[in-house]
Amino acid sequence: RLQTSGSERLNVRQSNPRVVVRSALSQVPEKPLGLYDPSFDKDSCGVGFVAELSGESSRKTVTDAVEMLVRMSHRGACGCETNTGDGAGILVALPHEFYREVAKNEGFELPQPGEYAVGMFFLPTAEKRRAHSKNVFTKVAESLGHTVLGWRSVPTDNSGLGNSALQTEPVIEQLFLTPNPRSKANFEQ
């Protein structure tokens, strides 16, 4: 056993020798500990990363990311219905030109890129509960000095969802807000 910079190097001597490196920051107990029991852990999810290192927007990056999702469909959780599962997606930079048009249609104006954030909200279907949820978040954001610019209903197409997914389908809305000028660094978090 060698201990170096927070990692542990184990030399495993078997008929096929190998070296295992485990980070001290990511170790999980091998035996039950408190409420944790490793026998319940499953390791079947997948994550892929596709990036354009130049920082330039590229349709190819999105196409490659979608292809990666297709190739990893065997790693995702799915139910008995072929059209109900956990879902998957890609994370892209904010499409400022698109959002600028959306904001204009919703009756508000966006500042320059990097000066605002967009939050995705999965809200209750009941109108009163949805309005209450939005009101609570707006009050919290404003109490922190942020400015809520507006909300937008996200167009969705649920025609491909199974019955199980349809029963719990939320209303999806986006919130646009600008940071408290005194806490831009905290806003990134």
TrEMBL record:
Cite the annotated pathway: Nitrogen metabolism; Energy metabolism; nitrogen metabolism; Amino-acid biosynthesis; L-glutamate biosynthesis via GLT pathway; L-glutamate from 2-oxoglutarate and L-glutamine (ferredoxin route): step 1/1
Cofactor or coenzyme needed: [3Fe-4S] cluster; FMN
EC numbers, comma separated: 1.4.7.1
Family annotation (PROSITE patterns)? GATASE_TYPE_2 (PS51278)
Q: Which EC class, in a word? A: oxidoreductase
GO molecular function terms noted in the UniProt entry: 3 iron, 4 sulfur cluster binding; glutamate synthase (ferredoxin) activity; glutamate synthase (NADH) activity; metal ion binding
Coiled-coil residues are none
Q: Name one Pfam family in it.
A: GATase_2
Q: What are the residue boundaries of the Glutamine amidotransferase type-2 domain, all occurrences included?
A: 45-189
> Which keywords fit this entry according to its UniProt record?
3Fe-4S, Amino-acid biosynthesis, Flavoprotein, FMN, Glutamate biosynthesis, Glutamine amidotransferase, Iron, Iron-sulfur, Metal-binding, Oxidoreductase
Query: GO annotations under biological process?
Result: ammonia assimilation cycle; glutamate biosynthetic process
- Which family is it part of? Belongs to the glutamate synthase family.
Q: What protein name applies here?
A: glutamate synthase (ferredoxin)
